[in-house]
Design a protein that fits this description.
The complex is a heterodimer of chains A (about 100) and B (about 600). Chain A is built from five helices and no strands. Chain A is an all-alpha fold and about 100 residues long. Chain A folds into two domains: about 40 residues, no CATH class; about 55 residues, no CATH class. Chain B is mostly helical and about 600 residues long. In chain B, about 70% of the residues lie in helices and about 0% in strands. In chain B, strand 5 and strand 6 form a beta hairpin. In chain B, helix 1 runs antiparallel to helix 16, helix 5 runs parallel beside helix 15 and helix 12 runs antiparallel to helix 19. Chain B is globular. The chains are: A mainly alpha (about 100), B mainly alpha (about 600). The interface between A and B is large, with 37 and 50 residues.
Chain lengths: ~100, ~600
């Protein structure tokens, strides 16, 4: 039932996409291309900086989850509900093996 | 003739994409739009972030296109335009896109690992260590070659003010965007206007004239007293060294300052400056071809010689001289560390990785056209000397700037301003990569030497060491040899990336011959080029030394020999480990390899 429901929502989008003329698609692609050359790296760096700060904050507050207790558990537990959505990606990033050549990104 | 060659190159590239690249993507690599990519699987908002194919195409192209596809073809024209053009086309069709595309896909199918991790996993721990030391020298050679080429360009009277104004405009763009929260459109309009007006102000007599401020600075720097030292290929000027110092100050700021404060906004403003120049030049070429207002016929012969005294034999030297225009190891670094972690679908790898390389091939052809149609400047200064078998006697970057100026003049840009814009264009194309390289060299030295020498953990110390090494290389090196060494290390890196893909494909029981042959060819060619350059440096410095050669020239040659031999020897060790890994991968493959 839910699949059918989501299909109903998808159809107008697909139709809308089909209805786009060649020129509209080309214009969209050129816009993306210019954005990619001019500003994508800037946007990405800003997001990376924010993401790194957030992960650093989670490390300080939730270090226990990785075996690095920094903050007393009382405060960690109080903050836990706010951090729950990010725990899996944060843990993966913290524990992933990194290489020097990653720094080129 | 120019437009015909450009159109023919575009047609060949499109055919190569349609009938070769697409076939490999579908039949051998079997890219699947439904297979999860690292960007979607590991999305963390930091290292892994999905983006659309069109955005990433622009990102990839901007990251890979620097001075390589411009300087390489212009330098290689000394062998004649036909062999240079042939290698650009063949290189792009059978080597270049193969490396960019396959290294991105390799990283994607290995959880987004980058070159260091991949060499550790697929070859050996020693391979990773060798690769990293090799990488440091490669980056140093990028710095040396770019610095030596751009020094004279930036030192020309009409150029420095425009460059400095771009830097000011860039810093202002960062301040407006991140601190004052001004709308990006207004930020762009204001800062790009400052950059363009700056380029124009740089040409007015009081600043860029023969008695202007820049000329006085050059005289004060030492040009009035003569040259810094002489080489058999031209004099090293005091002013050149001064402006290289200015570039290094720029790189230092780019390395130690927060990336949002300096490097990124300067890159952003530079992009618009470069884009406007390119659009005007292409418009000029098109109009000039139809109106005949500028000579677009080829002035260098199709074929000049098989051997050049200043460079060496056509094989292997031509192949490494063209560098990024045909195939480049830098691209595999960008593909694995940047692009592979952002691709949303596997089917996007070909248009992004392969497509950007095909486009860069067209840029290389455009640079070749700029060079081949301009044998002497308007004031009679020779660029290619016909009496010396068309030896390039003028800086390759200056040739491109001169070509741009001629074509921009067709659309009404004054010649002086066109030359200044073209020169600033090249300078920013180079220094925006150089600041990234210094930043990485600083991180690499901290990682590799930080435990033994704690001072390297200090970002200022690491940056200063990298800059000092660069300055020494620029001071003592001859730019055409530095370029060949850079091209050699660059393409050796490409062959190692291709070797990694070959080993991986063998282990996956997939056909690997389309990667293996380019890997073997590039490996043999680049080792030969490095050994030849070492021999040439030995010959000029010790065996047949010309009279009056000074100590810096001899030291520069000794450094060239050491670098060339180190890279050749480390590449042999890498190959030994690579062949072992390849045999192991083949024997452990689940089904017989189709590439046999």
């Amino acid at each position: 039932m839910s699949e059918q429901h989501s299909n109903e929502h998808m159809e107008p989008e697909a139709e809308q996409e089909e209805r786009q003329t060649f020129w509209q698609k080309a214009k969209g692609a050129i816009n993306d291309y210019i954005y990619g050359m001019a500003a994508h790296e800037m946007t990405r760096q800003a997001l990376k900086t924010r993401g790194s700060m957030e992960h650093l904050f989670i490390l300080i507050t939730m270090g226990d989850l990785l075996g690095v207790p920094i903050l007393p558990p009382y405060y960690s537990l109080r903050l836990l509900p706010y951090v729950v959505p990010q725990i899996s990606t944060w843990k993966r990033r913290m524990l992933r093996e990194k290489d020097l050549t990653d720094a080129l990104a | 003739m120019s437009l015909i060659v450009l159109l023919a190159a575009i047609v060949l590239v499109v055919l190569g994409y349609r009938f070769y690249a697409l076939k490999i993507d579908r039949e051998i690599m079997q890219s699947d739009p439904k297979r999860a990519t690292p960007a979607t699987m590991y999305q963390d908002g930091v290292d892994f972030m999905p983006a659309s194919a069109s955005v990433l195409f622009g990102y990839q192209f901007k990251s890979i296109a620097a001075l390589g596809p411009i300087v390489g073809p212009i330098t290689a024209l000394q062998f004649g335009w036909a062999p240079a053009l042939a290698w650009i086309i063949i290189g792009v069709l059978f080597f270049g896109w193969v490396q960019d595309y396959s290294s991105a896909l390799l990283a994607m199918r290995n959880d987004g690992m980058t070159m260091g991790g991949l060499s550790y996993k697929l070859i050996s721990p020693r391979a990773r260590t060798l690769l990293l030391s090799f990488l440091y020298i490669y980056l140093l050679l990028i710095m040396g070659a770019f610095g030596a080429i751009l020094g004279p360009v930036l030192g020309a009277n009409k150029v420095p003010f425009g460059f400095l104004m771009i830097v000011v405009a860039g810093v202002l763009a960062g301040q407006m965007t991140y601190r004052w929260k001004v709308d990006l459109l207004w930020t762009t309009v204001i800062t790009v206007a400052i950059a363009l007006v700056g380029a124009w102000v740089g040409t007015i007599p009081a600043i860029g004239g023969d008695t202007g401020i820049v000329n006085s600075i050059n005289h004060l720097a030492g040009d009035a007293e003569g040259v810094l030292y002489a080489t058999p290929y031209g004099d090293m000027l005091w002013s050149t060294f001064l402006w290289v110092l200015v570039m290094m100050a720029f790189c230092y700021l780019g390395s130690v300052m927060p990336i949002w404060r300096f490097a990124q906004p300067v890159n952003y403003t530079s992009f618009w400056f470069v884009a406007i120049s390119v659009v005007l030049s292409i418009l000029g070429i098109t109009i000039a071809t139809f109106t005949g207002s500028v000579n677009t016929s080829f002035q260098v012969p199709a074929f000049v010689t098989l051997y050049r005294d200043n460079l060496g034999p056509i094989w292997p030297i031509l192949f490494v001289t063209i560098a990024c225009g045909a195939v480049s190891g830098w691209h595999s670094l960008v593909s694995t560390s940047g692009t592979a972690r952002q691709l949303e679908k596997e089917t996007d790898v070909l248009p992004v990785g392969g497509g950007a390389m095909f486009t860069e091939g067209v840029l290389a052809v455009l640079a070749l056209i700029m060079g081949v149609t301009l044998i002497a400047k308007a004031d009679g200064t020779l660029i290619y000397d016909a009496t010396k078998d068309y030896q390039l006697v003028y800086g390759a970057a200056g040739v491109f700037a001169g070509g741009m100026s001629r074509f921009m003049a067709v659309v009404g840009v004054p010649a002086d301003l066109g030359l200044a814009v073209g020169s600033v264009f090249l300078t920013v194309m180079g220094v925006t990569i150089m600041q990234l390289v210094i930043r990485f060299m600083r991180i690499a030295s901290a990682e590799l030497l930080g435990d033994r020498i704690p001072a390297f953990k200090n970002p200022h110390f690491g940056s200063v060491v990298a800059i000092a090494l660069t300055l020494f290389l620029v001071y003592a090196g001859y730019w055409q040899w530095l370029w060949v060494l850079f091209g050699g290390s660059n393409q050796l890196f490409a062959s190692l990336a291709l070797l990694l893909v070959t080993i991986w494909l063998a282990g996956q029981s997939k056909r690997y011959i389309w990667v293996g042959i380019p890997a073997a060819f590039m490996y043999v060619t680049t080792i030969a080029a490095l050994l030849w350059t070492a021999w040439l440096a030995l010959d000029k410095a010790f065996i047949h030394r010309a009279e009056g050669m000074t100590t810096p020239f001899i030291i520069g040659n000794v450094i060239s020999i050491i670098f060339a031999l180190y890279m050749a020897i480390s590449a042999v060790f890498l190959l030994v480990d690579g062949v072992k890994a390849f045999n192991q991968a083949r024997s452990s493959a689940t089904a017989p390899a189709a590439g046999d």
